[in-house]
Amino acid sequence: MAVCVAVIAKENYPLYIRSVPTENELKFHYTVHTSLDVVDEKISAMGKALVDQRELYLGLLYPTEDYKVYGYVTNSKVKFVMVVDSSNTALRDNEIRSMFRKLHNSYTDIMCNPFYNPGDRIHSRAFDNMVNSMMMQVC
Amino acid sequence: MEGLTLSEAEQRYYCDLFAYCDTESTKKVASNGRVLELFRAAQLPNDVVMQIMELCGATRLGYFGRSQFYIALKLVAVAQSGLPLRVESLNTVKDLPLPRFVVSKNEQESRHTALYSSDADNPASYSGVIPPPPGRIQVKKGSVSHDAVQQRTSTDQQESTSPVVSPQQSPPTSPHTWRKHSRHPSGGNNERPLAGPGPFWAPFSEAQPGSSTSSDPIWSGHSPPPHQENWVSFADTPPTSALLAMHPASVQDQTTVRTVASATTTNEIRRQSSSYDDPWKITDEQRQYYVNQFKTIQPDLNGFIPGSAAKEFFTKSKLPILELSHIWELSDFDKDGALTLDEFCAAFHLVVARKNGYDLPEKLPESLMPKLIDLEDSTVGEQTGEVGYSSSPAEAPPSKSPSMPSLNQTWPELNQSSEQWETFSERSSSSQTLTQFDSNIAPADPDTAIVHPVPIRMTPSKIHMQEMELKRTGSDHTNPTSPLLVKPPDLPEENKMSSSVKYTPGNTVTDGYSSSDSYTSDPEQIGSSVTRQRSHSGTSPDNTAPPPPPPRPHPSHSRSSSLDMNRSFSVTPGQQQAGVVAYPPAVPPRPQPSQGAGPHVHRPVDAEGLIAHTSTSPQQIPEQPNFADFSQFEVFAASAVNKEEEDEIETHSEVLQVEKPSDSASSLRVAKADGRVEEKSSANVPSSAGKGTTPLAPPPKPIRRRLKSEDELRPEAEEHTQKTGVIAAVLASQPSIPRSVGKDKKAIQASIRRNKETNTVLARLNSELQQQLKDVLEERISLEVQLEQLRPFSHL
């Protein structure tokens, strides 16, 4: 279960960011922001190869004492960043991948909506519900 | 009252109303129920209604004859126009408007009213209402008739004036429309439609000029309301279409409407009955309208509407983009960015609903799911129930054809499969979490760590000593040990806690213990030894019992003093056996004022005292006899061991009330002391434990120590003193209180106070020591078991 999920546009501004409310959200915002550097670094590292050959799932971007940050980038340079709690050792890589896949699918659904202008903040209820399902269940 | 003159319109209106109320077709009497409903619909105060009824003579007659009914209606009109109810007003008031009945049930009446009024005022305009695109009108009328039928059939009485109209324009209540119509007969043609519930489409209609569109908006405006009754309000707007099935003999213009109405009546009824509770159901008229709109964008009914076109179309509805976006999310079932006919109808329906003030649902209602809407199939209602599964988006049907019953049936299967698949995945993940959770538990729980030996430093020598002591006592150990065995998990933890707090100096003691390594490596054996102990007590000799508290002798071993104490306790085996129970009691009395000096002597004396009081129950702790022990201890204090024993005794004196576990612990210690004269280390352990457990423990220890070489005890005592330094400090603060009774009460009270303080401190220490003792005893048991296992080999 993630504690923070963020969708970053190609220009590196957030399209959607949602944190577990009990935590200091600003901390997660900062974390996501700093993780963008790592994402760019990973992207550029594979930059030689064609974009299509690049793995969408970036894996663990960097771990901190309290949490781990995972990254995922689409072919259109839209980035998904997920912060998970380090104490949650139950989360495996496959699960992270599936969560990113769900995020990606929901994002594409949003894109299909003609009323959504790419580059706008995401206000979709369906997307919110999907993200809620994968966020930490905080009582 | 008699001689009621009615205008032609009134005459007709009243006649219709009477026919409506004449449920029994008597042509003479209007059913009271219907009449009452009618009057309720008139929205008049109850007293006014009663007055009317009285005036018209119905109360007198007991029923509503035709004349009475007409009079009542006239009075209703009078009341509604604000005039006082008078019999004279019946005939005197000129140009009285027709009574208005607002309730949905009376929609018909209102429509009648509007109809008649329109007829009365301007037949031309009335007819003008019907005209606009004839085709559309027919459809519209159909819907109206549908409403009428629904009104009749539906038992719900709903406010027809609660039109689900968007607040943008005036609500299309029948009176309003009627008024408007009557006032602006000429302009009513366009106004009425616009004034209808579909005002939001007015701007839309701008794009499509013409009354045709105006009529559509009205119609669509009425469509959404979750309840079928709301159709009624829609029907208000075209008052012309009011009567419908009511009076075939009505205005000529209505014939078309009526025919349409009759044609759709059966369908409507059927549909309504099948989907009575479905607020989001799209009626046929609505459906037809949507289809027509779809055709304007995409002529091919089986084709798609691209997202951009749909966006433009729905943007005209002037809904906020956010809501339109949400509507799109709901309606685009297959998430392909294009709308099929079904999806388009669902979206349109949602837009209309939203325009009329209904909140958008979070999930697509079942009735709006693409596969559920079937234009021609009247049995779609049944299918709706069958196929209407959760709105979780399933795989898009292979074909987007609107009417594919077979597809509809495959949908639920797809839904189910997808749901099952999703649930399965969730289950699998949950199972993963479960397994991982289990794996997390195992290492976290020290008690179960026996399976995974926790590398806790232990002092096996102590354990061995304990085991030997335990064995010496033989079956007697079972009693004391059983409680320990029962609480293995608690001891290690408690020991850990206490040890971490106070027994750091005890680490040095562990050095002297050799079998520590072997102990750590054989937690299971210890467990088995423990189990064997259980078997001694008669329990199952199963060695597979989870080894009790993992070897945690370290904290216990750190209490070398406990071992000493145990040794000292084990003065007399026999007595120890009995003293097992009595040890705890003996301790409490120690902190007595007279024991200021006594503690030092306690130990040597306690052994005897304890022995003497072995039979005493713990409740006898505060008894005087125990004091006598202290005197004995005082005697012993003179022994060389005093120096070492002092500390221990102090610790023991600190120990106050002894509980059962402490009793057992002390007894164990005593037992150990009996059997383990040579094992100082083990004595240390029990002694330390005994400190916390029973005050009785200390007494035997000094004795035991004397049995053993004092040299051994001294180093241990020193270490012990280190541990007990804290305790000693407490005791040191307490000056020895002279036992002279002759002292003033003040002295006694002061001594009492001090003793109480020491009591508390000792009690705390006692509890801690008890825990340690438990651990030590368990380890001892396990070691004993090991020894027994090894013994056969030795014999061989």
UniProtKB/TrEMBL annotation, chain A:
GO terms for cellular component: endoplasmic reticulum; Golgi apparatus; perinuclear region of cytoplasm. It is found in: Cytoplasm, Perinuclear region; Endoplasmic reticulum; Golgi apparatus. GO terms for biological process: endoplasmic reticulum to Golgi vesicle-mediated transport. Keywords: Cytoplasm, Endoplasmic reticulum, ER-Golgi transport, Golgi apparatus, Transport. Its main location: cytoplasm. The keyword Transport applies. Pfam families: Sedlin_N (PF04628). Belongs to the TRAPP small subunits family. Sedlin subfamily. PANTHER family: TRAFFICKING PROTEIN PARTICLE COMPLEX SUBUNIT 2. This is Trafficking protein particle complex subunit 2-like protein. The lineage of its organism: Eukaryota, Metazoa, Chordata, Craniata, Vertebrata.
UniProtKB/TrEMBL annotation, chain B:
One of its GO terms (molecular function) is calcium ion binding. Residues 319-354 form the EF-hand domain. Residues 510-522, 575-584 have a biased composition (Low complexity). Residues 671-681, 708-722 have a biased composition (Basic and acidic residues). It holds the Pfam family EH. Keywords: Calcium, Coiled coil, Metal-binding, Phosphoprotein, Repeat. GO terms for cellular component: cytosol; plasma membrane. Residues 755-786 form a coiled coil. It comes from the Eukaryota. Residues 148-159, 208-217, 407-433, 497-509, 526-543, 563-574, 613-623, 682-691 have a biased composition (Polar residues). This is RalBP1-associated Eps domain-containing protein 1 isoform X3. The gene is REPS1.
